[in-house]
Automatic annotation (TrEMBL):
Record's subcellular location: Cytoplasm
Gene Ontology CC annotation, any one: cytoplasm
Every HTH marR-type domain range: 19-148
MF annotations from Gene Ontology: DNA binding; DNA-binding transcription factor activity
SMART domains: HTH_MARR
Protein name: MarR family transcriptional regulator
Classification lineage: Bacteria, Pseudomonadati, Pseudomonadota, Alphaproteobacteria, Rhodospirillales
Single biological process term from Gene Ontology: response to stress
């Protein structure tokens, strides 16, 4: 099979509707998730989904470096640092220099941050997606695989 695109394939690709683009489906699903999470975030007293996933990531592995947390959440430091500062002001996390390496800042959940995560665990959007728990898990894994493949494909050679 040739890697070249036939004229018929090119014509079909040019006539695709917006709703047929996977990138648009993922983008618009992300926006829909953001809207669906808003009432949950309000109940938790959080301003953004990004704050919530930072709490979840720290609950999974407390004491991460700011850089490691940023990599895990796909966030740049200019976005992550102000968000962590806000979570610290709210009493959910504390940041401290690593005693073994002063260049590193480690982030820890406070007891209040742990309680927030536990409270958030009772709120789920699985049912709202209209998918069974098994279907939800399959879709989540497929989307993660797409993300990982795209990251690999776009990674700059060292």
């Amino acid at each position: 099979m040739s890697a070249q695109i036939t004229k018929a394939q090119a014509t079909k690709a040019q006539s695709r509707r917006l709703t047929e683009f996977m990138c648009f489906s993922i983008y618009s699903a992300n926006l829909a998730f953001g809207r669906a999470y808003q009432p949950i975030l309000e109940k938790l007293g959080l301003a953004s989904y990004t704050q919530y996933i930072a709490i979840v990531a720290l609950w999974e592995e407390d004491g991460q470096t700011v850089g490691g947390l940023g990599e895990k959440l796909f966030l740049e430091s200019n976005t992550l640092t102000p968000m962590l500062k806000k979570l610290e002001e709210m009493g959910y996390v504390r940041r401290q220099r690593d005693p073994q390496d002063e260049r590193q800042v480690r982030v820890h959940l406070t007891p209040q941050g742990r309680r927030l995560r536990e409270k958030g665990m009772t709120m789920s959007l699985v049912k709202d997606t209209g998918l069974s728990p098994d279907e939800f898990a399959q879709v989540q894994k497929a989307v993660a695989r797409v993300r990982d493949n795209l990251l690999r494909a776009t990674r700059k050679p060292e």
